[in-house]
Amino acid sequence: MQNPFESGHIKNYLLLYASIVVIMILFFVASTLFNDIRDVKKKVFHTEKKKSENSVEEDEESTPKFKLLDTSY
């Protein structure tokens, strides 16, 4: 295997690295130029609870479905 510093191949490696960096910079510039920034409307959520007419349904929902054990093991 040849030493790239002695055989002159290091120039090719540096050119490859520089070309990759230039391509990354070009993609970054292109993405910032063609990115349309639009105004985002603020979303408002309704936080008020609707009251149901039947209070019995609310009582059934508040009772747990499972009964816990009296003692822990």
Structural class: mainly alpha
Number of helices: 3
Distance between the termini: 69 Å
Uncertain spans, ≥5 residues at pLDDT below 50?
none
Order of helical and strand elements: HHH
Shape: elongated
How many strands, what sense, and barrel or not for the largest sheet? none
Detailed description of the structure:
It is elongated and about 85 Å long. It contains 3 helices and no strands. The chain has helices at 4-7, 10-33, 55-62. With 73 residues, it is an all-alpha fold. The protein is 49% helix and 0% strand.
What would a concise description of this structure say?
The chain is mainly alpha-helical and 73 residues long. It has helices spanning 4-7, 10-33, 55-62.
Which properties best describe this structure?
73 residues; mainly alpha; elongated
List the helices and strands and how they pair.
Layout: H1 4-7, H2 10-33, H3 55-62
